[in-house]
Amino acid sequence: MAVEKILVIDDEPFIRKTFEEVLRGKRYGVSSASSIAEAERLMKREQFDVVFVDVRLPDGAGMSLLERMAKSNVPPLAIMMSGFGTIESAVECMRAGAFDYLTKPFSIGQIEVLVKKAESYRQMLQVNEYLSAEVAGAKDLVGVSDSIGRLRDMLRKVAPTEATVLIQGENGTGKELVALALYHASTRANLPYIRVNCAALSENLMESEFFGHEKGAFTGAMERREGRFELANGGTLLLDEISEISPRLQAKLLRVLQEREFERVGGTKTIQVDVRVLATTNRDLRKAVDNGDFREDLYYRLNVFPVSVPPLRERDGDIRVLSEYFLARYSKQYNRPELRLTPECIAALEGHHWPGNVRELQNTVERAVIMSEPGAPLISAVLGQGIHPAKNAVEEENEGADKPAENRTKPSTGVLVPLAEVEKEHILKVLEACSNNRTRAADVLEISIRTLRNKLHEYRAAKE
Fold first, then answer.
1. Which of 50, 51, 182, 377 could form a disulfide with 7 if both were Cys (CB 3.0 to 4.6 A apart)?
2. What is the reported pLDDT for 123?
3. Helix (H, G, I), strand (E, B) or coil at 53
4. DSSP code of 387?
C-alpha cells in the first residue's frame, strides 16, 4: 500500500472524528491534531504519507506547514481544507505545494476519492523512481571486439529513428542492455521506458499487462488498470522474449503495432498510443514461423530492423575487458579494495567456453570477488568449478605430479584439509559477504535455498 499513515489537522472535533472513522474503516493508520504545534509534535515522532490540513488553525495558518513539510526527506502529500474556499485560495495553496484542495462541507466519498488519488500518485512516484534506477545503468556496451564495434555502429544508425527493432541472441548475451542502449540514444530518452517480460506471465495476465483492464473485467479486477502500452505512451516499450506470447495474443499485438490502438480487457473504448517497440528473443523466429509457432505477419512487423548480439565466444578480446569491468564493480560493492586479475586468472577466464555468455562471466567474477581476500590478487582457484588456467600456466606447478608423495612439494600450510571443510568455509564466507542473506548467498553459490538451509543445519548440529 502506497499510503499507510494519515494525519488530520483541524480544530473541529467532529471533522477529526469523521476522518478517523472513515479512514480506519479502510485500514489506514490515522492520527489527528487540533493545532499546528500538536501536529508538529506528531510529525517529529513518525512519518505520514498524507496530511489533511485546515487553512485556518487556532495558532496560525495551515499553509505555514507546507514549507516545513517540504523539507523532510520524504515529504507527505498535503491536502488543504477550508470552509471559506475560493478559487484564489485554492490556487495559492497549490502554488505553495499542496497536492489538492478540499472545500467544506465535504462528503465521505470525497475523502475516499482524495486518499485513493494520493495513493495512486505516491505509487506512481515509487514506480518512476524504480524505473529511473533501472534505466540509469550502463548506457554503452562494454567491449573492444570487432563484433561489438559493428553492433555499436548499427545501434548508432537505428537509435534516432522510430523503427521497430528485433534484438536476437543467446541467453546471457546482453539483449536487454542493447535495448537500454538504444533507448538512451533515441529521441525518446527522456520519456517512459517500460519493459514486459513475456516469458514470466501467463496468457491471461499478459493480455492485462499489455492492454490493461476495466473494473469487473474478470475476477479480482477491483478497479481500472492501465496496461504497459498506456504507461509507455510517448516513450519506448520493450517486449522481452517476444517468442513466448500465445497465438491469440499475437493477433492482438499485431493490431497495436499496425494501428497503434487497442481496447482494455473488458472495455469498449479505443485507446490510441504513440509507442516505439523494441523486442528481444533467444529463439530463431524465422524457424518458429516455419513451424507454425509464430505469426508470419507479426514477424515481419517486428523484424523491421533486426539486430544480432554476438555470443561471448565470438568476441575476441572482450573477456578480459569485461572481467576487469565486473571486477571493478564488485570490488567496490563488496569492499574488496585493490583486487586485480593475475595472468593465471586471465588465462583461465579466456580459456573457458562461456556457454552462459556475459551473464555467466558476470556471476563468476562476482563469486570470485566474494571468495577473495581484501588486497590479494584474484587467483583461478576462486573462479569456481570448470574454469581452470591453461596448461602452460600451471606446468611448473604440476611438474613432478607422478612422483611418490614423499618427494612432492608440500602445500605451504603443511595441512591437508578435508573437502567437506573446504566446502563449509566457502559457504560461510559467501554467506558473510552477502550479509547473511540466504537467498542471495544461494544464488551466488548456485544451489537451492533448501540445500543451503540443510547445510547450515548440519554445521549447527556438528557444533552441539
1. 51
2. 66
3. strand
4. -
